[in-house]
Each structure stands twice: as C-alpha cells, then as structure tokens.
# Entry
Amino acid sequence: MNDCIFCKIVKGEIPSQKVYEDEEMLIFKDIAPIAKIHLLCIPKEHFAYLSELNDGRRALLGRMIEKIASLQAELGLKDGYRLVVNQGDSAGQTVKHLHIHILGGETLPWG
Ligand SMILES: [Zn+2]
# Structure
C-alpha cells in the first residue's frame, strides 16, 4: 500500500531506528514510546489484521515471535518483555499494517 507509513519505513522512504532486519521482518523503535523500551516488529509484507493470516503469514508470525525471543538480551529485555498486538480502531491500532509492540525495560502494569 503506497500510503502505509510502515511500508514506507520498510522501503527506507521514511527513516526509522532499526534494531533488527532480515528479508521478511523489521524491528525498530516506536517513535512514541510508552515504556522504557518500546519496539515494533513488523512483517515486510503489507497486511493489516490477524484475520488476514494464511499459512505463510501464520508461519511468519511465529518466526517473528521466535526472533524477538532470540534477541531478548540484545534488545535489552533480559528481565522480561510484553508483546501486544492491537487489532482495530477500538483497540488503538493506529497503523493498519500488522505490528507487534515489544514493551519492556521496566515494570509494566500487571508486572
Ligand atoms: Zn504497510
């Protein structure tokens, strides 16, 4: 989608503070952090919602979660982290390109 801000970040048309990238996903710092460490993990392929998962995307989502876990110490999250996916406007999904919020670096609510 041409007007998607995350697709533009993937293409390098909008700068981001990348912390990890491979051929299918990108992890970068949220520009409006709500935790000491607040990163976003996105698939490079554009799709907006979990309801759009298919076999390939389901597997990719698993690899994204696995990658986050493997980078836990490197991302500064050795004491723990929370993954959040907001789905839809009422849940606060502001960018309609699926993304996993990675929150940590301090005690979070429910912590
Ligand atoms: Zn997009």
Observations:
- The mean pLDDT is 94.
- Residues 55-70 form the longest helix (16 residues).
